[in-house]
# Entry
Amino acid sequence: MTKMLYNDSLIDINDAKLSINDRGFQFGDGIYEVIKVYDGSMFTATEHIDRLYRSADEIRLVIPYTKDVLHKMLYDLVEANELVTGHIYLQITRGVAPRNHAFPTEFTMPTFIAYTQEAKRPINNHRFGVSAIFVEDIRWLRCDIKSLNLLGNVLAKQKAHEAHCYEAIQHRGEIITEGASSNIYGIKDGVLYTHPINNYILNGITRQVVMECCKKIKLPVVEEPFTKEQALQMDEVFLSSTTSEITPIIKIDDTIIQSGEPGKYTRKIQLAFEEKIQQLLLV
Ligand SMILES: *Cc1c(COP(=O)(O)O)cnc(C)c1O
# Structure
């Protein structure tokens, strides 16, 4: 039977019972992470766990485990489910309490859950690229927190889905921020551009790996916002996330990006990313 973590125990996933008074359910009052697993090994787990604790700090939620204990719990979950390639989803909410917007008492224990999902890598998307649409970014001003409140992202992604596109590229006014569930990059004349890390975007762990890959292939990086118009003029556009990895964007709205094929720098970044995964498996 498939297992999940429910607070500090491993239980059968079919035995899970959650309270209707959970603040995650009623307010989206919590945070989450998605960690990729390649060949049974967690990729950049430490970085994801660090970000989870940062998100928790920002919403004033105290996680009742040390980072090391949490890491071990996730490791045991992967083992128990014999997960090969896929991901771990984990979330933590401010716990169960009668509905009231203000925080519950300090004695309320957060609710922690984690489960695994077997999933093939999206190699066709990597090879051929995907389409995207522009969508106005209507989210709140703390997009740096990986919060369970995803309504803005959900509405953006649904628009993309209805347009038969893979991702929604969000923009505030003319400035591109990020995708509904990914970070966005443009490459022009041998320079990579991407929105700087601030409250308008989520600091992607895959984005951090992309930065390392750029260093490796000696591609200069400029962390400055760019506009919708500039995006359409880029030589290459791509997105990154834990589950999508490095995915080329070959069309935005009705505009095909250059030749309509994944660009040469994007391919180099994909190769450098692949090496990072291989390094993980050698350890
Ligand atoms: C999770 C997420 C990303 C990508 O972050 P990774 O750590 O690379 O998976 C980008 N944008 C948003 C809004 C996200 O929720």
Q: What stands out?
A: The chain has a mean pLDDT of 97. The two ends are 29 Å apart (CA to CA). The domain at 3-118 is CATH 3.30.470.10 (D-amino Acid Aminotransferase; Chain A, domain 1).
